[in-house]
Amino acid sequence: MATYSRRRDDESGEPVEDDDAGIPHDPRDDVDPLDLPEEEQLVYDLSDWPTGVHAEVVEALAEAGIVHAWLGTDLVIHERHEDRADLVLSDIERRHGLPSGEDGDASVPREPGSEIEYDLGDWAAPARALLTAQLIEADLAFRWEGSLLVTAADAEERVDAVLDGVEDTIATDGLPEGEDDLEESAFSALFVAVDDLASHPNDRDAILRLNELFERTEPGPVPFGVHPAAWERILDQVSDLLDLSLDSDDAGDVRAEAIEVREVLRPLV
Question: Are 244 and 253 a contacting pair, CB within 8 Å?
């Protein structure tokens, strides 16, 4: 059993037939996977895989001709590539001895020196949001641990280039006038509301506050510096959290979901 998980599956649970093997080019591969309709996206959660292995995933998918994109540690492909992507990822999992998440094993330990951390605690939320969008655009795997940006050590030069580019952009153009406080406020408000629900799961007032904030935020514009697909996924997670908090009497489930959403929002606050 692979450690990665699909966030969206075919409703029947059956593998999707891939009729495109051997065809040199398909027009659907001209579309960025992040821009695909949600029902055509297949998302693998590779957050438990070392970022060094992510680089191997990129190379293996390129060799297999599978167009892909990254959203942090989420790998996004077109659903029609599912069977071939499963084979590629299963082979990498087997060669690296990655444990099965369903067996309750701990995540594979990170080898010393395989990852590099950037302490961006002094970066404002809009700057971190812009950096996140640029890392996604550059097809670089990464994850946030609070204000620490973690990437593969062998991607250091590329990450440094992205960081320098973001700093140059901000130094030259700055953030759009008046938007920095606005966006930071939106992210902060969501973070505080979700954090409140994590501390008080199933509290009706906390649920109503989050729901009111969600209804005001959802129809608004995509925050500056955030990829539209990333923002849509954040809103989807908040919506799922609201549904769970309204339907479930299990405070533990609500708390766990709220903590997960809170950690997604944390680097943007």
Answer: yes
DSSP state letter for 227: -
DSSP, residue by residue, 118-164: EE-TTS-HHHHHHHHHHHHHTT---EEETTEEEEEGGGHHHHHHHHH
Residue 196, CA distances (Å) to 183, 201, 217, 226, 258 in order: 20, 8, 18, 24, 9
In 3D, which of 190, 198, 197, 187 has the Cα closest to residue 269? 187
Q: What is the pLDDT of residues 21-46, one digit of tens each?
A: 444 567 777 788 878 888 888 888 88
User: How high is the pLDDT of residue 250?
Assistant: 84
Do 54 and 141 touch, CB atoms closer than 8 A? Answer: yes
Q: What is the pLDDT of residue 178?
A: 42
2's tokens? 């692979």
Contacts (Cβ under 8 Å, ≥6 apart) of 257: 240, 241, 244, 245
End-to-end CA distance of the chain: 36
Percent of residues in the chain assigned helix, strand, coil, to nearest 5 = 55, 10, 35
Please name the residue ranges forming H helices in 143-250.
Answer: 156-173, 179-199, 204-217, 228-247
Asked whether residue 260 carries a pLDDT value surpassing 70, the answer given is yes
One-letter amino acid at 89 equals L
Higher pLDDT, 67 or 16: 67
Is the pTM of the predicted complex or chain greater than 0.90? Answer: no
CA distances from 50 to 108, 183, 217, 227 (A): 7, 31, 34, 24
* Backbone dihedral region for residue 161 (phi beyond 0: left; psi -120 to 50: alpha; all else: beta): alpha
